[in-house]
Design brief:
6 helices, disordered N terminus, membrane, Tetraspanin-8, Tetraspanin/Peripherin
């Protein structure tokens, strides 16, 4: 899989990401215990997942979910959980379809959901990467504007000096 690119699940309006899609530095900084606890508490305090809606699974799947919503507010699709509502999912009686830690970590408790899942951490990384990219583009545009203004100022100053020099020359 290409780094940083989520896998689109057919018929769904969201991507599922893997932790390996991101640099080790970003993983280490964001996913470590102290930083993740702060991020998780913000998500819980904001009631982040209560924004999701949908009476049927198809309605939720067609929504364009952010990486954080996809990773934190629902169990990963490969777990095989059954939809009850946007933030309540039922595990199959035989257990999750895949023996993955995200499948066993999922909780219907609105203060837990999948906030401790790898998929949630990856979703936050996905949002951060997108926002950093937007910030980098804005910074580049500002840099270009500053360079243009500086160049115009230098040209104007040079032309001003040249004009002043010609006017005050002595007689030939």
């Amino acid at each position: 899989m290409v780094r940083g690119v989520g896998k689109v699940i057919s018929g769904q309006g969201y991507k599922e990401y893997r932790l390996g899609d991101y640099s080790r530095w970003l993983q280490k900084y964001v996913v470590n215990g102290n930083n993740w606890d702060e991020i998780k508490s913000c998500l819980v305090d904001l009631h982040f997942c209560q924004r999701l809606s949908g009476e049927k699974a198809e309605e939720l799947y067609k929504q364009s979910l952010s990486p954080t919503e996809s990773g934190c507010c629902k169990p990963p699709s490969y777990c095989g959980f059954q939809f009850q509502n946007a933030t309540v999912w039922t595990a199959p009686k035989s257990g999750p379809a895949v023996p993955d830690s995200d499948c066993t970590t999922w909780s219907n408790d609105q203060m837990q959901l999948c906030f401790d899942c790898k998929s949630c951490k990856v979703g936050v990384l996905g949002n951060m990467k997108r926002e950093w990219r937007q910030l980098a583009i804005i910074n580049f545009i500002i840099l270009v504007i500053i360079l243009i203004v500086y160049s115009l100022g230098c040209c104007a100053l040079r032309n001003n000096r040249a004009d002043g020099f010609k006017r005050h020359k002595g007689y030939p």
